[in-house]
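This follows on from our talk about sequence and fold. Can you supply me with one protein entry, sequence and fold together? Could you add the entry underneath, on a fresh line?
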Amino acid sequence: MVPVMGWGQTVTEQTDKYLWLEDVSGARATDWVKSENERSAKVLEADPRFDGLAATALKVLESPSRLPVPHFREGTVYNNWQDAQHVRGILRRTTLADYLTAEPHWETVIDYDALGKADNEKWVGKGLTCLYPGDGLCMVLLSAGGEDAETQREFDLKTGKFVAGGFVLPKSKQNVTWVDKDTLAIARDWGASTMTKSGYPFVVKIWKRGEPLEQAKVVYRGTELDVSVRPFQMHDAQGHQATLLDRSVDFFSSEYFLLTPAGVKQLMLPGKSEIHGLLDGRMIVSLNEDWKPEGLTHTYAQGSVLSLELEAIKKDPAHLKPAVIFAPTAQEFVQDVSTTRNYLLMTTLEHVQGRAYRYAVDKTGKWTRTKLDVPENQTVGIVSTNTSDDKFFLGLTGFLTPSSLHLGDAATGELKLVKTLPPMFDASNEVVEQLEATSKDGTKVPYFIVHRKDIKYDGSNPTLQTAYGGFQISELPSYSGIIGNLWLVRGGVYVLANIRGGGEFGPAWHDAGLKTHRQRIYDDFAAVGQDLVTRKITSPRRLGIQGGSNGGLLMGVEMTQHPEMWNAIVIQVPLLDMLRFEHIAAGASWVGEYGSVSNPEERNFLASISPYNQLRPDVNYPEPLIFTTTKDDRVGPVHARKFAARMEEFHKPFYYQEIIEGGHAAGADLKEQAKTWATMYIYLTRKLMD
């Protein structure tokens, strides 16, 4: 036993007696999972309201009036679709003109159910990697049950068939890009000493059509301490192209290399930067740290978006000369960047309010921007852009505003509403507010709250609070028929907290919660919960919290640090054992976010917040619902299992649900997802509404 400093106390690190649960498919572990699933289902699924909630959730998920999310591919609109007849889903397509009609005439391109039946495999489609400008050749990504590991097969969009004798890559966590129609650049599991400690590839090879995969030639080798190495290619409509390698040194820092006939050449970009693509020979880059390029006197601010001339990069990748496209302000920060044929599109957040802009280069070579006319108080996102012309789709959504699609023309700046989701629930008695809480260090933390117009401020309202708080991911308002029907219309209050760790206020908002500063994130979330109680919106008896993945870790920390504040806690696909997370699934890839136990200071902090290690037999905890999936090969089911087992050891009540398929998600098909949501909301109903 090793003494470490705990959260406000000295604690003793316990011997880990549940390592056997890390054997994901072991007989003892699977027997334990089956037993816990059955025990919890006997209570939650036996509730007479469960079937109704599951049916309502499935009706929402399978609704034929759902928006078919469009993806441009050389002017054609593609869409991935699941419903009762297509359990695993289909990839389908139509023309833009037909897509804009009320009932498009879709052509099925790939039927994943039929393919799975033929292959005797439960395929989940994970997308396409296509040659551009191409003759229709793509690699189809196929996952068994939703895992991150994929099988890839060459497909011809023109013929609608898999290519006979074409490229086929066996199952692996892998990244593939086309170099030309007969050449792939591939990072995958090539055998011994080719995968990082995070479980991702670090060796890139070139594979030529017609030769055995074993003869592919190495062009780059990272190290096993990297997160991963991936090849990717950029094209623009004017014919410029480049094949690059992204060596992820940690989750947030990369080294970029240009692949040339003479070998690889490193681009002297800052470590915390991201390449978004090409536009008319200009590489588009965003910065997550300040950058002073070699040989220049100017420093470009964290959060800026820049352009670099591709030909200049090829001639001298060590001395880069950027032009500013966007510079952040105290209130406005970039969210997404994409390109059409001739223009750059950008969405930003201005105090968590969505904005959209079109950018172009004027005759003097300077970037100019035009604000697009989007409604206030809605989340704005770039859905798809067409690089064969200047058309694009924007998506707009809000808590009470059904999601809509707007077709834009970057050449004119015109936006036209083309599709709107019909209302999925009655929102006429609901209202949205944006409030602020004050965190422990005085930082103002905004949060959204959705509630009935006639709310009583007496602490009696059942309230569900959620957040993510990590990896610079922004949590924004969105329309959900599940939340609306299973929570809001039944009298629930919904709260989304924009705590530190996210990207709502730019990279600095994220960096404020990195590694040993992470307690700020947890303090922010607790401050929002306390603010809800202070305002008499709710009370600890009626206050529940929910989060998944990194948000699942957030839930575990809030449970162990503030057990008295909540009466329900939904912990989904979580990290919970922060002293072993680097050795579980892809955990080593997140050292840049959480720190490492190999660093004494970081280990001490991780021990102090690790929910698995902070559970105590003499503390009364809320009875949580712990959810995970067996085929989650990203975070893995291990954290959830061990946390539940330790609660069981301490005779603490909990509910447990582990489904097999779905990967790092709620389920591989819509029926399974509906059951997952029904389980969550019957649990919340019993804890907060009854």
In short: Residues 670-689 form the longest helix (20 residues). Residues 1-11 have pLDDT under 50 and may be disordered.
